[in-house]
Each structure stands twice: as structure tokens, then as C-alpha cells.
Amino acid sequence: MNKQRREEIKKLTSELEGITNRIEEIRDEEQEYLDNIPENMQGGERYEVAEAAISNLDEAISSAEAASSALEDAAE
């Protein structure tokens, strides 16, 4: 791989890391929301929606980290 393509991949990797960080922030905010739902409302629809969102955000983070790793491997 030539230097120009490696540099482009490094740039994409950096952008992806920024996106991953933002997803983590959103996940943490949603977790805080979930943690603050009153006990008598736990198990309700809003609680379940928040749990599902956190699970999906965790999956997105894992996928983004895997993509970042694959890009780094490609640039070697």
C-alpha cells in the first residue's frame, strides 16, 4: 500500500475513534438516565427502551472498535 492510502486510512481511523468516543458518551448518558429511573418504574416501557438502547450502543461501539482495528491492520 502506498503512503497516500496509508495516510488516508490513518485519517479515517482517527475520525472513527472520535465517532466511537461520541457513541460512548451517548451510551453513558443513557446509562445515567436508566440508573435514575425510579424503582417503581423499572421494568416499564421506558426502562426497557433505555436498556435496549444501551445494548445497541454497546454493539455499535464494539463494531466501531473492530473496524478501527481492521483499518489499522490494513495500513501496516
Brief digest:
With 76 residues, the chain is mainly α. The protein has two helices and no strands. It has one domain.
Question: What descriptive keywords fit this protein?
Answer:
single chain, 76 residues, mainly alpha, 0% strand
Topology (elements, then pairings):
Blueprint: H1 3-35, H2 45-74
Distance between the termini: 8 Å
Order of secondary-structure elements = HH
Query: Could you report the average pLDDT, rounded to the nearest whole number?
Result: 95
> How many distinct folded domains?
1
Number of helices: 2
Structural class computed from helices and strand pairing: mainly alpha
Main sheet specs = none
Strand content: under 5%
Q: How would you sum up the global shape?
A: rod-shaped
In terms of per-residue confidence, which ranges show pLDDT below 50 for 5 or more consecutive residues? none
Radius of gyration: 17 Å
Tally of DSSP β-strands: 0
State the share of residues found in helices, binned by percent: over 70%
Describe this structure in words.
The chain has 76 residues and is mostly helical. 83% of the residues lie in helices and 0% in strands. The longest helix is centred in the first third of the chain and has 33 residues, at 3-35. The N and C termini lie close together (8 Å).
